Amino acid sequence: MTVTRIAVIGLGAISQSVHLPLLRRNADAFAIAALVDLSAERTADMAARYGVADAHRFTSITELITAKDTGAVEVDAAILATTGSHAGDTLHLVRAGIRVLAEKPLAYSVAELDALTAYGEEVGIDLRDWVRVGYMKEYDAASQHAKELLVDVTLRAVDVQVMHPLDGSQLAYARLAAPTGDVPRETIEPLLAETSSIVDGAVGASLPQELRTLYTNVVLGSIVHDVGLLRMLTGGLGEVSFAQHWGPKMPGSVHLRGNLARDETPWTIDWHYIDGYPDYQETVTFHHETGTIELLFGVPYVTNLPTVLRVTESHPELGIRVSESRWMQQEAFENELSALAALVRGERPAGAGVAESVADVRVGQRMIRALALSKGFALESGVEATP
After folding, report:
1. pLDDT tens digit string along 267-289?
2. 3-state SS class at 283
3. pTM reported for the whole predicted model
C-alpha cells in the first residue's frame, strides 16, 4: 500500500483530538511527515508523542516548504488546522506542490478565494485536484445516505438546530496539551492585522466588533458547517430574509431564516452557544410531502460517534414507520483523510473545494448583512457583503 506523507499544520484542539490520532490509527496508509505550529514548545511536545523526528518539526509554513524544496522533508499533502482564514496558507502550499485539506473556513473573503482561483488559472491547474475543505459532515455516511433519500422528495421545510456548550466540555476526554506561552507578540500581531484587513474588505472596518466576531467566529466559524451541508444536500441557501442575535453574553444565540437557492422552500437555522448546556447536539431536519428525514449529529470531536439518520414515513402495513440507521464503523474524519489520499493519487473525490467555498462565503456574508440590519447597522458601500 502506498503511504501518503502528511504535514499537520496547526497543533491545536482539532489536530490533537482528531487528526493526529486518526493518522496514527491509519499508520499503514499515512505517515506524519512533518509538524508545524507557531509554538516550538507545542511542536516539540506533539513530535515526542507521535514519534516525529526533530528535523521534521517547524514553526512556520515557510520553513516547511523550504525543507521540502531542499529535499530534507518529503510531503505529499497537508492538513491545515490553524486558526482563522486558510486561503493564504493554502495558496503557499499549492504553489509548493502540496495538496491541502484545510479546516473551515477556507476564507473570510471572496477576494482570498479569487486569488487562489487566479493562481490555478495562471499555472493551468484545476484546484479541484488540489484543495478540499474540512467539512467533515459531507463525508459522514449518514449525510451521504440522506442525500440519496432527498433526491426523490419534494421539500416543504428545512430546519437546523445547534446546541453548543463550552468547547472545553466537548474536549475534556481528549486530554489536550496545556497552553503554551512561547509565541512572541511580534509574531502574532502581523497575523492579527492581516486577518483584520481581510475582514475589513469583507464586511467593512466600521462594523461593530461584536458583529465582526459573529461573522468570523460564529457564521464562518461554526454555522458554515451547516451552510456547506445544506449546499451538498439541497443545492445551497438563497437569500436571508430574517436574522436575530441575542443572549446574555457573546456569542449568544443566532436565528436565521430564508429560502433555498433552488426554490421557495423555507429554511431555518437556530444556533445557541450555552455554557452550561449538557452536551453538543445538532439536528438537521427535512420535512417533505410524505414524511421527514433527520440527521442527528453528536460531539464533532469524538471519533466514531455515529450520526443518526432517522426517517419517518408511511407504511402500507405498519401505518407509520420511524427507522434509525447508524454507521458505527465509519468515521467522517477518516473518510475525509481517504479523500485527501485520493487527491494525492491523482483522483478527484467528491467534496467541497474553492468554488464551493466561494458560494458558502457569499451565504455567510448575506447572513452577517441581515444580522447587522437587525441591529440597526448598514454595511459600508464597496465591501463584499454589500449587495
Report:
1. 999 999 999 999 999 999 999 99
2. strand
3. 0.96
